[in-house]
């Protein structure tokens, strides 16, 4: 009997062993079959990266890899294939497909929480909105997401590179002070980088930023830094061309001509390229400005190259300068170039170029009201767009700061909660008794402040009405009376004179309206105040603002925001009129529940015995009216320091 059991056990063990072998064999076959397409898709991906292959072949390789990858679970290889597919489409100038596959990449990377490819995808989406469809607020949004995702994975270098794009976009939309902030932030990331290309690009953007702000000294310094630091010859040519353009703007035509002529002789510069056309165009313009008359052939050669390369923005610049060239000698020809420029500007959605064309058309055809109406409409539209872009970017910066603050706040709250639980019971009775007292006191204080605020508001309204009335009388009434008297004496006065006079009156009206507009509060207050302070920045006076955008302005009551805005504007106006300051610093700090604002300038200061004017007296009343304190620290020849402390 025992022999039978032994036989059965032996048979069972043999069957079990055979079964295990079969299972392992089948599993191995399945595994091997799965690895075959995976390794094949990797090989195809590598072939698509090989630049020695034709673009058509590389596109076929990546299409095959993509087809195989879609049959398999999502992993980093599948994401790499999708990413490369988007790149191939942009090489084929298929922008819509580039957009589609990067949106697909963003969704797929989100599904498996791959931060690297999520950052790559949203950067490419930002690039699409920036370079191809010209929607700046969307470009800002995706660029900012990409920057944050790269920061999360610790890639500060890539974050800095993305900020270069953000700064360039801000410069393009006249947000010069915002661009300067972004460029300073870039240097924090890129100074430690061995990649000199992006550091040089940052210096180039800083130079462009200072050029836009008419700070030629710093612009030259940064262009030369960009040229010195880069080890890429093609970039050096671009930066030298930018430097030459700056010299043209300064009127230093001979220096610009010599530099541009050297660039055209560079063996690395391909004749017939868009860069060659840009340099040739700038050289022609510099020579024409310097008095040379035989520049038309080179102007037209540059335009021809730009047409062949489908460089639409370059064509716009060529048409603009050709119109300037023909304006005096052949206005009809100039108008034809300007009409072409306007059509092309509309096609590439560049309203700023259209306004440049309209400005010259108004000079050539002063009686054409349609040109002036279109010009005013576009200028207003551009102002609205620039304000929208500034607000959008300011909000994103604010959201970044708030997200970091929330994380720190949660950490603090967690620690404080543990400590508070031990003493909560003992303090409960005290809190209840104090609550009743504080409630009554708070309500009383609220109504007292509200009544005081209403009185101050009425005074402010009365003061504003007086100012508007005075400006209407001193500026508009006199202009209108002068125009009426002129028409009365000369009823047959020509139309351009009347139009110019009416335009002057219109500008005065817009100025009065702008000076007395409603002040934005809440989250938008930082942008509002920064624009106001930035208006006082020029080549003679540098204005530095610190801590403005990091403060939680939505927690400050509207009437206090208005008081701060009016007071700081009064200080800036007073500085401009009397102090002769070359440097103004305004620092915002939060200390507990108090907002400290410190205004400092290096002007001539004020005598201690000097009496305040109406403006400064109103400022003192305004700050005291919102339960604040104000302190003046000034001596003759030692500048001015003013400290404001306001509870919020």
Automatic annotation (TrEMBL):
Spans traversing the lipid bilayer: 12-30, 429-449
Domain Histidine kinase/HSP90-like ATPase: 563-647
Coiled coil start-end: 398-427
Keywords, ordered alphabetically: Coiled coil, Kinase, Membrane, TPR repeat, Transferase, Transmembrane, Transmembrane helix, Two-component regulatory system
UniProt-listed Pfam families: HATPase_c
The TPR repeat ranges on this chain: 200-233
UniProt key word Kinase: yes
Organism: Flavivirga jejuensis
Catalytic activity from the UniProt record: ATP + protein L-histidine = ADP + protein N-phospho-L-histidine
Superkingdom per UniProt: Bacteria
Entries under SUPFAM superfamilies matching the protein: ATPase domain of HSP90 chaperone/DNA topoisomerase II/histidine kinase, TPR-like
Keyword Membrane belongs to the record: yes
E.C. code: 2.7.13.3
Broad enzyme group: transferase
Listed name of the protein: histidine kinase
